[in-house]
Structure formats: structure tokens, C-alpha cells
Specification:
Blueprint lengths: L8 H7 L14 H5 L5 E5 L5 H9 L4 E6 L2 H11 L8 E5 L5 H4 L5 E7 L17 H10 E11 L2 H13 L3 E6 L15 H8 L5 E6 L5
Parallel strand pairs: 1-2, 1-4, 2-3, 4-5
Antiparallel strand pairs: 5-7, 6-7
Helix pairs in contact: 1-4
């Protein structure tokens, strides 16, 4: 469930130093922006930022970009980010994921996180799922060679759809579990806010990591 509109959120976002406002001008220039050659990891649909901020804390030698479409959600991540100015390896973008290729150049991204994405359950809206073949095609164009996607969800229907779609598109699934917290991949797992909530309700968490087919 999305947060209801937060009055003044767009204005706060527009003025915040941790939000990149001219993101399309940064295409192909992210190493220059961060001032180093560290890998670039992005989370699409980062929500309130709990997951990506913990990643940034644990991995100072990785650059992170959190992408969120909804201002009312992004504002919560900004509130947390404001308290940790030392996280110089983390910035946010408010944008729709459909514009991803306008922001990142070919092979510029080293890893993509998709956490608890909107399932868009109706068949007519399947193309809007972040794990659809349409989006996989976009990811291939921005991922560096040898890079991958990690996808987590409690929605089993979305997960099965995502597994099937990945296989049909020739992606190589190297890790997969339908009960993450009881699997061999549980150690070191960083939980999102939704993950904590759903786990407490007894929902199993599905996870897979997959690599795109080699480019011709």
C-alpha cells in the first residue's frame, strides 16, 4: 500500500541535496558524478530507503542510486538520508522506471535490486511489472557484462511469472528460493521494510538472482 499524498513533498524533494534533479544529463557520467570508479548499484522502487541505506552503510566502496516514482514515499527516505550525511555513496532519483535507459548508459550499472515490486495482478497490466520482458530488455542495455538482478517478493504469483519470464528471455538464474529466510541465502540478507512486515505475518519471501543472456 502506498502512502497517501504528503503535502509539500515535491517541494522538499526539489530542494534536497541528496536527490539528483537532472538525472538524464548524468547518463554516461556516473563515475564522474561520484568521483571514483566504484561499481554502481541501483534499486528500482526503493520505497522508504531502508534497504539501500543499509547497503550503502555496509559497502562504502559501492555507489548506490535509489529510484522511486512516488514523492510521498521518497520523502520518507530523504528524512532518513538527511540524518546520515556521511553516506557519500548514496543518492536518490524520483522517476518512472520506464525512463531507465535515458538515465544510465549501456553497461553503466553493475547490479539492479527489485524489491517487493508492484505485482500489477491483472493480465492487461502485466507489461508494467518490473520483471516483465519489456523491462528485462531495458535492463540488458544498462547492465555491465557479468552483472545481475536480485529480485525479492512475497507474492508467489508474481514470482512464478518472473521466473518463467526470465527463462523465456534467456536469462540465467543462479540463485532461487521460495523461502529465503530458511534458505542457504539467508545469511547476510538485508531486509526491506515490506520484507520485515510480511515475514512477521508469516509470509514466505521468494528470491532469485539472474544474469542476462550474452549480448550478440
Amino acid at each position: 500500500m502506498r502512502l497517501r499524498n504528503v503535502t509539500g513533498s515535491r517541494e522538499v524533494i526539489a530542494e534536497n541535496e541528496y536527490v539528483i534533479h537532472d538525472e538524464k544529463s548524468m547518463k554516461g557520467k556516473w563515475k564522474e558524478f561520484f568521483g571514483n570508479d566504484n561499481p554502481l548499484y541501483i534499486e528500482i522502487g526503493m520505497g522508504k530507503g531502508t534497504f539501500i541505506m543499509e547497503n550503502a552503510r555496509q559497502n562504502p566502496n559501492i555507489n548506490y542510486i535509489g529510484i522511486e516514482k512516488y514523492s510521498s514515499v521518497l520523502i520518507r527516505a530523504i528524512e532518513k538520508r538527511n540524518l546520515e550525511p556521511e553516506l557519500t555513496n548514496l543518492f536518490f532519483i524520483r522517476m518512472d522506471a520506464e525512463e531507465i535507459e535515458d538515465v544510465f548508459a549501456p553497461e553503466e550499472v553493475d547490479h539492479i535490486y527489485l524489491n517487493f515490486s508492484d505485482p500489477w495482478p491483472k493480465a492487461r497490466t502485466a507489461k508494467r511489472r518490473l520483471t516483465s520482458d519489456r523491462f528485462l530488455g531495458r535492463y540488458i542495455n544498462i547492465l555491465a557484462k557479468g552483472s545481475s538482478i536480485t529480485f525479492k517478493t512475497d507474492n508467489i504469483d508474481l514470482f512464478e511469472y518472473s521466473v518463467e519470464t526470465a527463462e523465456e528471455c534467456g536469462w540465467n538464474i543462479t540463485k532461487i528460493t521460495r523461502d529465503l529466510h530458511k534458505s542457504e541465502y539467508a545469511e547476510g540478507n538485508i531486509m526491506t521494510e515490506y520484507e520485515k512486515k510480511f515475514s512477521q505475518l508469516g509470509n514466505k519471501i521468494n528470491m532469485m538472482e539472474y544474469f542476462p543472456p550474452e549480448k550478440k
